[in-house]
Specification:
single chain; alpha/beta; TIM Barrel; three-stranded parallel β-sheet; 9 strands; 15% strand
Length: 275
């Protein structure tokens, strides 16, 4: 592998993890510190809801070792509420606060919703908003764009992102392609890094459980398929950031561990199981 392999979970602050992941009795103030002893990176979902304070960002930095990678989201007020209009100042402020992480700041993810037909947002409209906006974002930061409309995965989007050195986020979501289908799309890697987000079927798994202390859905075959995507990207020299959500199988750390074992152990290629 010639690219850098970063993996982990979507977030670290879950009381259901105390016992199965964090030692019993561990105070929440130590969760990130302990998490960072086991994983090289983490996705931050909370930054979608609000811009963190500089002191909070400093705390994240202090709790983690050199080389650790945070992949935060752009605030939803920009991507969802404003849909990239008249929000440049808010976006800039959000990114500048995140830059307090220094070298630990990984890809900032611009996650967009699924657009229904009656909303009038087709690919052309989306790109008219997206491409000028990303050119105005602060430089020196990696950005990833995540879409939830499968028909958007066309050359116009991929070429537009590539020209601006922005990554398409490869997301495992009920509305999006399976891993092999992503690889079948020419030019699917649009920057020098590849973000992978294992989200799964949120509504489906919440019919089974709403606590996140154990796996309740066997996703090993699917994780192995995603490991093949990661391995191909790594072989071709791309950095890969892969993060697993609790909603994917029931307990994010197990999914993250499986992904790492399949990638690091070659199981994605030979079909062996490491559970």
């Amino acid at each position: 592998m010639s690219g850098r392999w970063i993996y982990g979970t979507a977030g670290w602050s879950y009381k259901d993890w105390v016992g199965p992941f964090y030692p019993e009795g561990t105070p929440s103030e130590r969760w990130l510190e302990l998490y960072a002893q086991r994983y090289p990176g983490v996705e931050i979902d909370s930054t979608y809801y609000r811009t963190p304070s500089p002191s909070m960002v400093k705390g994240w930095d202090s709790a983690t070792p050199a080389g650790f990678v945070f992949s935060p989201k752009m605030v939803g007020a920009v991507t969802h509420e404003a849909f990239l209009q008249n929000c440049d100042d808010e976006a800039k402020r959000h990114v500048e606060v995140l830059q307090g992480l220094g070298a630990k700041l990984g890809p900032v993810i611009l996650q967009f919703p699924y657009y229904r037909k009656d909303e009038g947002v087709n690919l052309e409209v989306f790109l008219e908003r997206l491409l000028p906006f990303v050119e105005r974002l602060p430089r020196g930061v990696r950005y990833g764009v995540e879409v939830r409309n499968k028909p958007f995965l066309k050359p116009a989007l991929l070429d537009g992102l590539r020209a601006r050195e922005i990554a398409l986020v490869l997301v495992d979501h009920v509305w999006m392609p399976a891993p092999p289908a992503y690889l079948a799309i020419p030019g699917i890697f649009t920057a020098d890094f590849v973000p992978i987000r294992l989200i799964g079927d949120r509504h489906g798994i919440e019919k089974i459980t709403k606590t996140w202390e154990k796996v309740v859905v066997d996703q090993r075959a699917r994780v192995r398929a995603w490991a093949q995507v990661a391995e191909r990207a790594l072989r071709e020299g791309y950095d890969v950031n892969a993060f697993a959500n609790n909603h994917y199988a029931g307990h994010g750390p197990v999914t993250a561990n499986q992904m790492n074992e399949f990638v690091s152990g070659g199981a994605a290629a030979d079909g062996a199981a490491h559970d």
